Amino acid sequence: MGRLRAVFCQYLPKVVLLCAVLFNPCYSAGAKEGSKHDLFPLLKGLEGKVSFWEKIFIQYNSYQAIIHDFNYPEIIYEVIDFDPNSLDGRIKARKIKAAQWKYSQILRAIHYKQFKPSQLNHKERTIYQKFLYIKGSRKFLWASQNVHCQWGIKDKFEEGLIRSGRYQSWMKKVFAEEGLPLELTYLPHVESSFNYKAYSRVGAAGIWQFVHSTGKLFLRIDPYIDERLDPLLSSRAAAKLLKKNYYYLGNWPLAITAYNHGLPGILRAVNRTGSSNLASIIARYQSPAFGYASKNFYAEFLAALRVAQDYRRYFGDLKIEPPLQYRTITLPDYLDIADIKRYFSLTDKEIGTYNPSLLLPVLESQVYIPKGFQLRVPINIGPDLNQLYARIPAQKRYNQPKSLTRYRVKKGDTLLSIAKNFKVSLKGLKEINGIGRSSFIRVGQTIRLPQSISPRVSETILAAATPPENLGRQMPEESNHPGPDKRRSKKKDNLKAEIKPIKPMPIKTITNKKGFNMGWVMVEPQETLEHFAGWCDIPVQKLRRLNGLRPRQPIKVNQRIKVIFSRVDIEDFRNRRFEYHKALQEKFLANHQVKKTVTHTLKEKENVWYLCQNVYQIPYWLVRKYNPDKDLARLDKGDKLVIPIIKSMD
Fold first, then answer.
1. pLDDT tens, 503-515?
2. Residues 401 and 334: beta-carbon distance below 8 Å
3. Residue 264 φ then ψ, to 5°
4. Does the pLDDT value for residue 220 go beyond 70?
């Protein structure tokens, strides 16, 4: 009888969920005959969250930090106004932490005085009254541990409204074809403010913020083409994912939350709580992975939907961008992007605007545009695209992709000797092969080489190989254009032609007693423990315990920390980390350019961190890029560094 009861309790929630799905009157994903309120109800218990997010979208700008309660975000303690022109994140972080600590102490004080209100001072009484509708004698104690900060995004939301006109008509067409409610096309306001260049700290990209693993299910993602960045292609993928979520979950509040949290996680929450009501799940479901973003995602969507559909009320008459008008041609051959620009009379900006999925290796002519690529061009380009294509000479149409070649290390070879033999730079050879400072190679090892090689060693070349997955956005050492243009490009010292995102450091892995892979990584600049926890999909507290770190103890650059791959595989971890660094550097590249370089001789007590932060105000990775043969962690007085001097492009 006991065993039967256990089986009954195990499968009862699943039976309840199945019944909810089968008998849900709005089960059809395309049930557009129902009203918006039927499909996207304001659930009881979420009213405060929706009201809070409406304020975030229409009242507070991106330089304002809102200190509020984590579980009841409508309870706002303070709004901190920062200088919009200030770029010092450390000052902002210190002020926010100080405010969080202050209100944490106030809430603890209220906890001990709550039954003697006469002892409360004015500040404490004001906060005390904000919690009157919440039950429980320990509510202030819990609140003292959940003081949260949220930045305003009014200005970014307004920019998103303007950009949305470029894509939303296409998105509505796609969602209608998939039988989905058209209100879902407002979801990118929450994800990215319709910025197709957006990257998150866990590597999500594009207006729909697909992470690498999910994006690969629907889109092409490789070092040369990333369809997550294409709003038109990624919209089709988002529609398919949302439709799948709805099929398994049966209502849109859960399906939309699953878009952020993941379908398996929401199914697990429904199973454990025995409820398909999102508000009930938020109140009852406890999981480290089900955090602030997931609990607020549906409320954010409702708030964004309200504001965007009535934007004139909050932002006035905006000049919404017109829909993107284009023509398409399928490329029957592999082509160099330079030839496309020449024979189709396209500019770099037009190529990037109409074909955002093309990455820098293609845009910089390091590899060809793939055969079969759907090239978009402005609608006013030429009377017949096939006639324009026919102008391209036959010798410039290729039936094979441009690839790297390989060399097998022989006895007596060194990395430097290989670089000299093939007339390539040691720096470029290291980057292509992901080799660190040691330059260690072994006999029989296969080394990837740039395309141009010296004939004196051509007999040792192996068969051409496909490009390595971790090549990223590597730039060519030299321009493909001969003559004066080539010389001028070297003198110009353009930062965009130099930078490649930091590669993930090598990870040494073992398997623990529970069968999970564990590894050790070296901390890179601008990485925090929170980043590693996000990339591994585990709580920060668990990562702290794993490494024996105290609460709030920061990690340092070059520190060796332990990570666990229980929820993601190692490749996903590497991709998320790589995308984070790529986003940081692309953001920097969009606003800065190298003006010149200088040589700095280190003085007493100087190090690279001091130079970056206090002397030249440049990022660490940029110094490392210009000094590839130096160990920046072990510099001495008198050592010389090449320092790039940057200028803002604003």
1. 544 555 555 555 5
2. yes
3. -60, -35
4. yes
For 20, residues 6+ apart whose C-beta sits below 8 A from its C-beta are: 250, 251, 276
CA distance 306 to 186: 10
Edge-to-edge strand list for the sheet holding 560-565: 508-511, 517-522, 560-565
Residue 356 phi/psi, 5-degree rounding, is -70, -10
How much is the pLDDT for 451?
54
The alpha carbon of residue 83 and the mean position of all alpha carbons in its chain are separated, in whole angstroms, by 26
Q: pLDDT digit string (tens) for 580-604?
A: 777 777 767 766 778 888 999 988 8
pLDDT at 644 over 50: yes
Exactly one of 124, 191, 527, 579 is catalytic; name it: 191
3-state secondary structure at position 565: strand
**Catalytic site includes residue 47:** no
Alpha-carbon 386 to chain mean position: 37
pTM higher than 0.85, yes or no?
Answer: no
Question: 326 - beta bridge partners?
Answer: 378
CA–CA dist 254, 142 (Å, integer): 27
Q: How far apart are CA 244 and CA 437, in angstroms?
A: 47
| Residue type (1 letter), 545 | R
Q: Which two tokens stand for residue 399?
A: 């039936």
Please classify residue 182 by burial: count the beta carbons closer than 10 Å to its beta carbon, then call 0-12 exposed, 13-18 middle and 19+ buried: middle
Tokens for 17, please give them. Answer: 């969920």
> Residue 251 and residue 27: Cα distance in Å, rounded?
7
Set out the domains of the chain in order of their start, with CATH numbers: 36-44+154-315 (1.10.530.10), 64-151 (no CATH), 326-396 (no CATH), 405-465 (3.10.350.10), 508-571 (3.10.350.10), 591-648 (3.10.350.10)
